[in-house]
């Protein structure tokens, strides 16, 4: 773990520590088949419905974390992120389900991820909470960028890829990384890195669960 502290920034250390998990993620059949266009529609629908359940809670987690923010600009960033979650839920309903509401209880993997987020934000410092919510921002950007180079023959899947590879989204993630690096300056780096790694693993399990239609 000490070697991680030699990186130029905290987030560099986080990414390096979670690199094996990211490689498993980007090579997961859900994402490989999404890019090839061969992903079964019922698996993509399961992912979207799980994402709706996730975003509803993630938005509230961001609002809770915003209340701990030591800087007004950081609070505003997180509140904007929470509002973005609400908009994304509406976008999913409109873009993929023709405006029909699609709701379900979270899968076991999703529920475990949400519990981790709620518990860390509730019980931890601002920096610890930021480390917990960061994988959702960052992993999606990197997945989007990688899949953008592959493209997808399925227009629904390509629309998803385009959203997460958009330069505007990249700018949002850059702000999150800057907040993380500044907020974590005076806190134990090992703890923050471990929180990030745990979140990254939950991201992997989210896709894995959707692909296998797990309860």
Summarize the helices and strands and which ones pair or pack:
Blueprint: H1 10-17, H2 19-26, H3 29-36, H4 41-66, H5 72-97, H6 108-123, H7 126-148, H8 155-164, H9 167-183, H10 189-211
Helix pairs in contact: 1-10, 2-10, 4-5, 4-6, 4-7, 4-10, 6-7, 6-10, 7-8, 7-9, 7-10
Question: Can you tag this structure with a few keywords?
Answer:
globular, 77% helix, mainly alpha, 215 residues, Heme Oxygenase, Chain A
Overview of this protein structure:
- By secondary structure, this protein is mainly α.
- It has a single domain (13-211), classed as Heme Oxygenase, Chain A (Up-down Bundle).
- The chain is built from ten helices and no strands.
- The chain has helices at residues 10-17, 19-26, 29-36, 41-66, 72-97, 108-123, 126-148, 155-164, 167-183, 189-211.
- The longest helix has 26 residues, at 41-66.
- It is globular and about 45 Å long.
- The chain starts with 9 loop residues before the first helix and ends with a helix.
């Amino acid at each position: 773990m000490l070697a991680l502290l030699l990186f130029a920034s905290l987030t560099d250390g986080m990414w390096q520590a979670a690199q094996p998990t990211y490689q498993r993620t980007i090579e997961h059949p859900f994402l490989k088949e999404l890019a090839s266009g061969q992903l079964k529609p019922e698996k993509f629908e399961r992912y979207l419905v799980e994402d709706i359940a996730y975003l509803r809670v993630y938005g509230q987690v961001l609002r809770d974390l915003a209340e701990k923010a030591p800087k007004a600009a950081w609070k505003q960033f997180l509140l904007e992120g929470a509002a973005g979650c609400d908009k994304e839920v509406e976008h999913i309903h409109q873009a993929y389900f023709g405006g029909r509401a699609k709701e379900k209880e979270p899968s076991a993997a999703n529920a475990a991820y949400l519990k981790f987020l709620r518990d860390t934000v509730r019980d931890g410092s601002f920096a610890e909470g930021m480390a917990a919510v960061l994988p959702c921002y960052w992993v999606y950007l990197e997945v989007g960028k990688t899949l953008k180079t592959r493209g997808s023959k399925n227009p629904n899947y390509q629309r998803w890829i385009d959203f997460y590879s958009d330069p505007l989204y990249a700018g949002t993630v850059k702000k999150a990384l800057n907040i993380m690096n500044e907020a974590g300056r005076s806190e134990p780096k090992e703890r923050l890195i471990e929180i990030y790694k745990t979140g990254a693993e939950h991201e992997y399990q989210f896709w894995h669960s959707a692909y296998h239609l797990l309860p």
